[in-house]
Design brief:
- Chains A, B, C, D, E: It is found in: Cell membrane.
- Chains A, B, C, D, E: Its main location: membrane.
- Chains A, B, C, D, E: Keywords: Cell membrane, Membrane, Transmembrane, Transmembrane helix, Transport.
- The structure is a homopentamer of 317-residue chains.
- The first copy, chain A, is an alpha+beta fold and 317 residues long.
- The first copy, chain A, has 9 helices and 7 strands.
- The longest helix of chain A is centred in the last third of the chain and has 66 residues, at 204-269.
- Chains in contact: A-B, A-E, B-C, C-D, D-E.
- The structure holds magnesium ion (31 copies).
Chain lengths: 317, 317, 317, 317, 317
């Protein structure tokens, strides 16, 4: 357990390693980093603590809940390719002049270090929570940018040929984007709630801060939606590519079949063993068959051209 | 019929088996569990009772209706794979200091036992109703989690091969998820209504409780939507798999046909019975036919490779 | 023309067949059933009567319009398979203490009889209009239930085979459901408007009544949407069934072609009339051809199995 | 330029052909019909006149803009098959007691004549503008009805066979409906704005009028959406028809190929020129080949029936 | 760095090239054009300047943020085919009586020149910002018009034949339109925010101006949506064209195969070398084979016509 003092005057955080023995007695604002077990065994009366603990047993989404005396919530950050190697989550519990941050993954230490730089004189605990939320999405734009660039490469491949394993690749992106979208939706709901709450408590500065947070998250959310739409367009292009490819293949099959079956019939015809077939008697019989065959081929080619059976590569757009 | 006393002071429920004879006379809050018939034959003046009875004749959705004197409604819980074996429904009728719970399926006894633990001093009947609603969705997240995991297995199958009976399986999930979605939509409407109602009656604590309930249900609803989207993505992947498979099959057909028809024509040609065909005279006639055939095959293979007729498994993404 | 008295004290309707001569003079609330012609020729000053008449010339949707002095509107009930044999419509015109019901189809008599049972002491004309609206949708849930059950039968057929005339059947349902949806949307708009109007006129009881009506219609509307989604799912399943069927057919074609074309080439080859083909000299030539043919077939079958050309019915999900 | 006087007392319009010389001096409400050039050269101080003129240079949509002193806007009526032969547009400029109507197409004269009938005592210029807007959509319902009927004919064709030029026809309707939808959306925005404006200016009667206008336009808009959905359903039916047709064709191809290729192999086999083939020695060789061929055909037909390769017309739904 | 004086009295901008030395001391409203570096090194206390600078490091969208003391934002104008050759962006920072415009691309000089014409007496800096925003979208309608016309040409091509490189062309338009849509959505959000802000600051004139701006942007946004829908319709038409083309090809293949395979079987049959085939003995054997072949062809053609295998070009809609 790490306990931080928030010096109201200077807006600075200082670490106080006393294993949380004197939490209760302090009157200064404090930020206490601890894990689930420590939070459960914390002495003192913390209203609705049980509710947060039971929520944290099985974390699937980010949320915030306000009770009469305290605000509590969970933030669940999905794994994001570029920066983070794994997903992580933490709970927060804001009660009187104490902000508890409950986590198992030891990711918050680093984030708190980042947040320290943003702090100013008269910074409240509500503000610190906002700064933490802001720090969590600080590099997300770069991560989304990266996904978009990767999809551009996929598009370039698809436009040239029909790639193997397209489905697996697309499915992976779809899941990733669905997850991001859900994440931002939950953060938007959270931000919305906090804005309302700050308004009710008449904390104007905090309200404006949460509003800006909301707008930032919404822009990320819209970016995700744009990428999702782009992914959808690539998928539809792939579908069309397959359809065109199929069309090409069938054209070849049809042309080949139509060219050869009649000729094969002719040769079959004169392969019959009927005695006294007049054509065999005729002097130019064999030449006539050659002529008819050539003629047939010419007629068919003209017909195919006219009917545009083959999607000509000259029909450029 | 089971009658429970709600001791306002201690927030405890105690069972009073007197077959409902003295319901009217009590001034303490009571919870009365009974079936349709008992509710119909209940003595005393219960306004709009007829309305609830006629609604319960044919239950299709959850709803709540407020009248001037009473609040009444129906909750219809769909069958959910994991925990419940069958769907069930019950009506509730909140009038003065009495909460009637009307059901045929005897599922509520168990739920009331669970609810008992949540009760506290000064707990009102409105609170009890909220606790019951909360108890009903307590394990739903696990159930949805289960569905999602099953769908992941389906995805793994589809990515490898085109399974039989895919349509039946997908259809079953779709129905299940449609049902869940409708269920949560109705609960959200209910929660919304109750929140409004509590606000109008100036029951602040109850209003906050219903708001938290609403948010819980909305998160479940959003989870259902996410799973539905996932299911849709699996379906689209399956479609694409079929299209690719078809493409492969047609490629084989086209290649085989294009390879063999010309050769067959050649053999047919020299199977003709025209007398005096010059090729037969020629010494190297047979060798020439062999040579032409081999040449033809080579040309065709080169052409197919160049035109990418076959979706090569080397075109990895 | 049928004129009804609404006795405010007892909440009863009594018929007064005097051909509408004394309408003007009465001070009691009245409900007057009449047809378009009678309404047009009605003596007395009825504001905006012309507007209603011109609206009724060409009825396509249900609507309600409020003027300063009167409320008027049209209800257009679409044909619904189970109960009603044909669509019908009527106009209403609520002015001072008179409710005019204008129709050509003589359907309202029956509905008014049903409505009589709901009436109570102090029942107003606004209430009667609400009761009529409620009576109109009383059995709709059963009708929608019927459609859903029929669609379940369609699904069962589609899951087993590709039925003829699927398109016609689906198109019929789609139209029916589109019509129902539009109908409920219009009723919701109407209910919404009436609720607002009652609120403005400070008729609390009526407002609550119209709110409940709105919610009832919305539930029906949502039910229609659920059925529409179900229909859509059946359609998509049908599409997939066709795709799978096509895939099967093409597999057969490809397998058959790939099996027989090479063999046919072999037989064609040895059907050529070249003199002195060495194979014919060889003693085991014929046996060798048989052997090669059998070998070819075995290789192809192994290849097809490995490449999963055929969607095996053992690949159960 | 045509100048009309609006006599407030009688609610009548009278024409005053004086070429707009005395516009400025009048104190009575006036409606002035003129073209762009005349409007530009109008003497007097008309605020934000430049804004309207520049908007009218390039008209693409209907809009209304309110400034501190004046209300101005543009209405762009798309070509609608039945009644109008071409699209037309006009601007309006409402300033003090003057309503300028600016157009090049001379369509408004006729509309003003229609509007005259609706005018009443104390009719304001705002009312006249509303009446003009109402007159513009008066026959639209009939026009949309016409489109719907035409689409029903298209549906009847598609259900029977796959028509040529379907794409062109559908594309034409789609464009038409997109245009209509955009038109009504813009009118709804306009109506909404005017309603707000009237509310702000405390013109209750006008506000109610614009509200009714809004509702009328919304119903038309919803009708367009219904037709668009119907069009979409026809398109999807057409798609399915093509898929089924393709399925049929492929079934024929597969059946024919599967029936004939084995037989052709047999005949090819016994067309080989191997000396001493034992079958030729056998007395019943030829009969056996006939027998085997017939047997093969029977087996194949049974197989096809069992596997439902052919979509039987007996599988009626 | 270019510094402009805004003379409040005359509403005129005059350039003051003093390299920003006296910015601080002025009491007149000023517009200062400068680049990122200059803005960073600006002396004086500019609250939240760091926030804008860090936002401008990586510009992806247009946004505006209000702090207690200042309004700041970024506008990112995408490349638009017709007029602009490249995308550009700039930041703005409105603090006290100074409007800083920060950009690297030197595009604003030109825009400011345009804006000068719109300025009037008593024009505020807020107004100037609005005028700049308006100037940025002044020609967008022509640009969108251009895209629509190009798509009409694409449609004309697609309706006649299946063009090559359709996918690439469509993808390019899709991206362009997605970008435009996102751009206008961001501008709408900005306009919305500014309107709210002006309302809070009680700047009525400015609020109305931003409202008109919002409506202009919304119309452009709706136009983009209409074009997107049109693009979608062209894509769907292309899909259908491919399906129809495939259908045609398969019809040809099926007809050719069905015509020739039976005849080929017959010729194969009589190419068998069985000794003593009775048909060869029969005098009219050869004639009979000719007759049967012709009959077969006739029967098949009749069958194809009846079953509408071929999509006849006489089946005009
Ligand atoms: Mg969004
Ligand atoms: Mg958006
Ligand atoms: Mg978007
Ligand atoms: Mg998607
Ligand atoms: Mg599509
Ligand atoms: Mg496809
Ligand atoms: Mg939701
Ligand atoms: Mg959502
Ligand atoms: Mg949702
Ligand atoms: Mg979601
Ligand atoms: Mg779905
Ligand atoms: Mg799709
Ligand atoms: Mg498909
Ligand atoms: Mg709903
Ligand atoms: Mg709905
Ligand atoms: Mg639904
Ligand atoms: Mg649909
Ligand atoms: Mg589909
Ligand atoms: Mg399909
Ligand atoms: Mg609609
Ligand atoms: Mg709509
Ligand atoms: Mg609507
Ligand atoms: Mg729809
Ligand atoms: Mg559409
Ligand atoms: Mg299709
Ligand atoms: Mg819009
Ligand atoms: Mg639109
Ligand atoms: Mg839109
Ligand atoms: Mg799109
Ligand atoms: Mg489609
Ligand atoms: Mg397709």
């Amino acid at each position: 357990m790490n306990r931080y003092w928030l010096h109201a005057a200077s807006g600075e955080l200082s670490l106080a390693r006393d294993n949380g023995k004197n939490i209760e007695k302090e009157s200064e604002p404090q930020i206490i980093l601890l894990n689930m077990e420590e939070f459960q065994q914390l002495e003192g009366n913390y209203p609705h603590r049980k509710n947060l603990i039971s929520s944290m047993r099985f974390i699937r989404y980010s949320k915030v809940e306000a009770f009469h005396e305290c605000v509590q919530g969970i933030i669940h950050v999905p794994k994001q390719g570029s920066k983070k190697e794994k997903e992580f989550s933490f709970g927060f519990y804001l009660f009187e002049n104490k902000l508890f941050l409950i986590e198992e993954d030891e990711e918050l230490q680093e984030i708190l270090a980042k947040v320290k730089n943003d702090m100013f004189d008269g910074c409240t605990l509500h503000m610190v929570l906002l700064f933490i939320c802001n720090a969590l999405i600080d590099n997300d734009i770069l991560y989304l940018q990266k996904i978009e660039e990767n999809l551009e490469k996929v598009e370039d491949v698809v436009i040239k040929r029909i790639p193997e394993h397209f489905n697996e690749v697309i499915m992976r992106y779809r899941k990733q984007l669905s997850e991001s979208r859900a994440y931002y939706e939950q953060l938007m709901n959270m931000g919305d709630f906090m804005q309302m709450y700050m308004n009710r408590e008449s904390l104007v500065e905090e309200e404006q801060g949460w509003e800006r947070y909301m707008n930032r998250v919404e822009r990320l959310h819209n970016y995700v939606e744009t990428i999702r739409e782009y992914l959808q367009q690539i998928r539809e292009m792939y579908q069309t590519q397959i359809d065109i490819h199929q069309n090409r293949i069938m054209s070849i099959l049809t042309i080949v079949t139509t060219l050869f079956l009649p000729l094969t019939l002719i040769t079959g015809w004169y392969g019959m063993n009927f005695p006294g077939m007049p054509e065999f008697q005729w002097k130019y019989g064999y030449l006539a068959v050659i002529g008819v065959s050539v003629l047939l081929i010419i007629i068919e080619i003209v017909y195919f051209k006219k009917k545009r059976i083959w999607i000509s590569s000259k029909d450029v757009m």
